Every structure is written in C-alpha cells, then in structure tokens.
Amino acid sequence: MHNPIATLLIIDDDDEVRASLAAYLEDSGFNVLQAAGGAQGLELFDAHHPDLIICDLRMPQMDGLELIRLVTERQADLPVIVVSGAGVMSDAVEALRLGAADYLIKPLEDLAVLEHSVHRALDRSRLRLENRRYRQQLEDANRDLQASLNLLQEDQNAGRQVQMNMLPVTPWSADDFQFSHQIIPSLYLSGDFVDYFRVDERRVVFYLADVSGHGASSAFVTVLLKFMTTRLLYESRRQGALPEFKPSEVLGHINRGLINCKLGKHVTMLGGVIDQERNLLHYAIGGHLPLPVLYTDGKARYLQGRGLPVGLFVEAEYEDYQMELPPSFSLTLLSDGILDLLPGDTLKDKERVLPEMVETAGGSLNGLRKVFGLAELAEMPDDIALLVLSRNLA
Fold first, then answer.
1. Are 177 and 41 within one domain?
2. What's the CA angle centered on 160, arms 154 and 161, to 5 degrees?
3. Could you tell me if 237 and 124 lie in one domain?
4. Is residue 162 included in any domain, yes or no?
5. Beta-carbon neighbour count of residue 214 at 10 Å?
6. DSSP, res 239
7. Are residues 203 and 63 located together in one domain of the fold?
8. What is the CA radius of gyration of the chain?
9. Per residue in 46-69, pLDDT tens?
10. pLDDT tens-digit series, residues 315-327
11. Crossing angle for the helix pair 38-48 and 64-74, nearest 10 degrees?
C-alpha cells in the first residue's frame, strides 16, 4: 500500500495543468507541492525532500530531462513520473533511461491513471527501501555472525590446543610396557579422552573416557576429568604412602564429582592400574562399550566386566576386576565411535567381529589404523578414540 501522507512535488510551467493535477492528488490524500519550473522545483526538493516528483519535459530554462539528472544525482531512488505533451519517443526512452518510473502523455483524460501510476511508483519505492534496509540488516548480521564465528574459531583453536596439551605423549614407555593412542574428533574438539601416567615406581594408571555429546561442551568435561584424576593423585601423595589406588574408587570419585558439577554430562570409562611388581592388571568399567580386547598368542578376546556410566547415578558402585598379564600381549581400548566403522547390522554383529579385526591388526595401533581405514575417514558422526598398551608385542 502507498503511504497516505506521501509528499508529491509537481513541476510544470503550465499553471492550469499543474493546478489540476495538484487538486486531484490532494483530494486523493496526498500532500502536494507545486513548482512552475525546474529551478524552483529543485529548491522545493532540497527543502522538503518529497517522496515522488511529477514533472513535464518541455519547460523553459531547465527541461525535464536535465531536472531528472539533477534529482537522481541527489537521490537515486526517488521515483519520478513524467507527464509530457511532447510525445517524442526519444524523450520517453531517455527519461526512462535516466530513472523515470513512468511516462504519461498529456492531456490526461482520466487522472485516475496518474493516481494509479503514483501508487505503483510509491509502492515500488517503498519496496526498494525495505529491501535495502533488509539487505543492510542482513549484511550487518553477517558481519556480526562472521565476527562471532571468528571468535568461536579462536576459542576452538585455544580449546583444541589445551586439549592436545593435556593428552599424554604417544608412544610412551613404562619399562617394558608401551602405550600409544589416537583420537579422531567428529568436530574440532573431542569428547573422547585418554590418559596414562605412572603413579609410583611399581604402578601405572591408564583410562579411556567417552563423554556424552560432541564439541566444546563435551571437550570441557575431558578437561575436568584430567583435573579430577590429577588432583586425586596429588591428594593421595600428600598423605604419604599411596593407597591401593583402586580403579573402582577412581570411577566413584569421578562419578560424584560430575554429579556435583551438574553439567548434564555423563561419561563411559575404562580405567586400569598395572602393578608391575606383581604383573597384575586391575581394571574397572563404567558403562563402556566395546569392552577392552586382549590380544595374545595370535588370538583376541574381550575382557569381562560391567558397570554403570559415570556421572548419572548417585548410588552407582563400581567393581574391580583383576587378571595376570601374559608375557606378550596388547590390550586395545576403543570408544564407541569405532562401532560406526564395523560391519554388521546389530551391536552383537559388530561386537562379534571386533576381536577378529584386532587379530588381523596384530594387536598394534598401526595395524588397527589400517584395518579400520582411519587414514581414509571422511566426516564422522561420533568421536573415535583408540588406546593400545602392550608388552613384548612382535
């Protein structure tokens, strides 16, 4: 719809025609200004900034074409309607080329035609103005979005650097035990995390954690996990002789910590302690699949165990499992993102084939990379983490 209080400027040296047009348009609800020539018209234009100009072409001193040029230089989108008795095709073409919205020929037998042209020109002008405003808003929003994306990228880069710095060195040796890992995030930051470190002269701790969700919020929880395990070790050392450092107690400690933080995140975990003097592995499971895969003498099998996810249930309790370590072996820990790479339609099908793939890989991380095709992975729906600890593996 047109603006009911739009201001129109009529420029015509014919007083009778100008007055007739003005009277009709005023009766139609417009505010109308009148000028008897181009120079006066420009003065009124500069003073009142009308919404539309109606002008003749043949006027003394300054003709309509020159007037259109000067007006469009001042305000390119101002609609101009030419009402002329000249009727020369070249003038009409030139007026339209200069930006005139319409060209009407005198005498106007039905002034409703002019009113319709005015409504149409004002509507087009309003739409152009709205489109320009929307475009400007969109450009502003895009700039703000780009600035936010740049800031987010900086945050992601910083977060990734923090997360990478928290990960242990790979490969790493603790006497005759070797540790190696790889993490493949589905997004820039990973909700999967691994760690391994020496507790004292005879014990080495390791774990693999898979935080629910993806991205920055899940990656933040991996920072919290690192903090909680490091603080637990520090507090234990402050008390003098280190306690047994049972995996079940560590999972219980993390479970309570996550619940108290109220982050709305939980973790599935596999944690273990290697007692090198006694050649024993103690481990606990916090709702994690797949289970660890032990490879020895060319055969692979799952370790046994069960437990609730960490950070969900206040009453959760975790059980310690124990096994004597073979002279030569590897133990593979995987996050559940690896299940997306396994053949089979059901979870049981995928679990059935995993030990076979570990056997094909020879129980090594490099072998697993080849078997799973990790180098050729495209976009993944979930993070993938692999942790392999071994001894005397051929």
1. no
2. 90
3. no
4. no
5. 21
6. T
7. no
8. 40
9. 999 999 999 998 888 888 889 889
10. 999 999 999 999 9
11. 20
Report CA torsion sign: 101, 104, 108, 109.
Answer: negative
| C-alpha–C-alpha distance, residues 284 and 308, integer Å | 10
Domain boundary residue, one of 113, 134, 155: 134
Q: How many angstroms separate the CA atoms of 144 and 369, rounded?
A: 41
Q: Would you mind telling me the total number of residues written for the chain in this entry? A: 394
For residue 208, is pLDDT > 90?
A: yes
Cβ proximity of 273 and 283 under 8 Å: yes
CA distances from 327 to 172, 278, 281, 324 (A): 19, 13, 13, 9
Phi, psi of 80 (to 5 degrees): -125, 130
pLDDT-derived band at 156, boundaries 50, 70, 90: low
- Tell me the one-letter amino acid at 37: G
Rounded Cα distance between 170 and 181, Å, is: 6
98-132 pLDDT per residue, tens: 888 888 888 888 999 999 999 999 999 899 888 88
| pTM for the full predicted model | 0.64
Assess whether 175 and 246 both reside in one domain. Answer: yes
158 inside domain: no
Q: How many CA atoms lie within 13 A of 263 on its CB side?
A: 24
- DSSP letter for each residue of 198-225: E-SSSEEEEEEEEESS-HHHHHHHHHHH
Whether 107 and 173 map to the same domain: the answer is: no
- Listing DSSP states for 177-192 in one string gives EEEEEEEE-SSSS-SE
Number of domains the chain is built from? 2
In-domain check, residue 143: no
Among 109, 134, 159, identify where a domain stops. 134
> Helix, strand, or coil here: 345?
coil
In angstroms, rounded to a whole number, what is the distance separating the alpha carbons of residues 118 and 363?
A: 82
Residue 172 counted as domain residue: yes
C-alpha separations of 361 from 242, 338, 352, 377 in Å: 37, 15, 16, 17
Same domain, 128 and 215: no
Question: What is the domain range of residue 20?
Answer: 7-134
